[in-house]
Amino acid sequence: MTDASKTNTAKTPGALDGVFVLDLSRILAGPTATQLLGDLGATVIKVENPKTGGDDTRGWGPNYAKGTDGQPTDLSAYFMAANRNKQSISVDISTPEGQDTVRQLAARADIVIENYKPDGLVKYGLDHATLLKAHPGLVYCSVSGFGQTGPNRDQPGYDLMAQGYGGIMSLTGDPEGAPTKVGVGIADVMCGMYATIGILAALRHRDATGVGQHIDLALVDAQMAWLINEGCNFLTSGQVPERRGNAHPNIVPYDTFQASDGHLLIAVGNDSQFARFCDVIGAPDLGRDARFVTNMGRIEHREVLIPALRKVLATMTKAAILSKLHSVKVPCGPIHDIAEALNSDQAQARGTVVKAARDDLADGHVRLLANPLKFSATPVRYDRAPPRFGQDTETVLAMLTPQKGQDRKS
Fold it and tell me: Which of 199, 221, 330, 373 has its CA 20 to 30 A from that of 16?
């Protein structure tokens, strides 16, 4: 586990040093994007609502970091997953004073990101049209469930609804069971990734031309975009893809298999791998069977091939199968639980878990999932642990006071 407080002592410049982000988002998609920007060096000011106690996810337990008194804090594990490298300020944007504060921050900002319902900020004068008119160089990203247009624009957007509407649930789960969501909020997370890409592209355009723009991003649009091969399978064939559990629609065998002592993964990617696979598990006849020698044949006859393979593999241990397949370079692997994954030697070697110091917590730090990006010149930094609600309000507002009336963008 990497100690973030030690890795940042040299203060190597981040790729986005000097970029100012005004974060009006909450829950997961928007905060994922702004955390990524903060990891890359941007200054991120997170505006939280005092009427609700801040970001909704601060209350999404049951796991919370404990304070020095041993009691749970407002740092839920869910909140901490997407809110490091940010400063939190308590601002009620429904009041004229709160709106003025946000407008002052927008005047300094390079980027604004929000995830209110379409037109939800118009009544406060904080919508994209208003702020872009005042600050033409602003990059303003709006994240919503269904986007700013279309018949469903006013429907609320949660990850579960996006996974259902966008089709991914129809592909996930046991073929004989119910449609199943992915185990984490993947529609939100991927939407945050698309938001980050869009923001950085718009920022580059702004830096080259001086012209900002509005980015309209929908959870459902993003989810449909990453249907990837199954989406294109339908567009090409007109046939609706079906649930296959862990099996692959275009590659066979590529699935979970039962050994004598548990499950493992086997992913045979080409015909030569399949021949080696069959030889090493003691089933050379399957490798030479004309029905199975090509991937197209294996797809056509998967209902015959897979049961035959399962019968052979069920007599062998996981360790024996993995050893044999590794020896002939056939892709395979274990199925880790999260503890096994995060405590693995590979995770430790890659710094997958980081510690961020907080002296108001019982442990003196929190443990977080690291950013996976490895830069040679501008490494990711972990300068700020996830903030307590409103902890930076006084500091940020004091910074604004001398600047009142000044517009960095005009």
Answer: 221
